[in-house]
Write a structure and sequence with these properties.
This protein is mostly helical and 143 residues long. 64% of the residues lie in helices and 0% in strands. It is built from 5 helices and no strands. The chain is elongated, with a radius of gyration of 22 Å.
């Protein structure tokens, strides 16, 4: 292969690598959006009432999906960010709790968040990253 051909192939390789990196960034952003939308849909019925065309003025009380978490003392997670608090919760209570249960426990323990919904979205992301890391360590192929 002559020098000119090698140079052309190197340029094509750089372009393909840049395109792949951009594609992966877009894919990760899309996964975050999908996770947030799933959280929104699981977090209440207001979106479905609007979609169905009704303006349901009745307020239905639902059981919190976070019920059943361990009793957490009020300042257990005070001043911690969600990731650090999540890791501390896992170390203290194990990983048998759902994300909504963990979210309610962290809020009870003093984690500050702009909203429960944003906290849950972050916790789902942390749990997903942990799962992917575990799969990578075991040599499994992720999604």
């Amino acid at each position: 292969m002559d020098t000119e051909a090698k140079r052309n192939y190197r340029v094509a390789l750089k372009q393909a690598e840049a395109e792949l990196a951009a594609h992966e960034r877009r894919g990760e952003a899309l996964r975050v959006v999908v996770g947030g939308l799933k959280t929104l849909l699981a977090d209440g019925g207001s979106a479905s009432r609007v979609r169905e065309g009704g303006s349901d003025t009745r307020k239905r009380r639902r059981k919190s999906a976070g019920e059943g978490h361990p009793e957490v003392p009020p300042d257990t997670f005070k001043g911690m960010g969600p990731t650090v608090a999540y890791r501390k919760f896992q170390a203290m209570y194990g990983n048998s709790y759902s994300v909504p249960q963990i979210g309610d426990a962290l809020l009870q323990g003093g984690v500050r968040s702009s909203s429960r919904r944003s906290l849950l979205t972050g916790l789902y992301g942390i749990r997903r990253r942990d799962r992917l890391k575990e799969e990578a360590e075991r040599g499994e192929v992720g999604d």
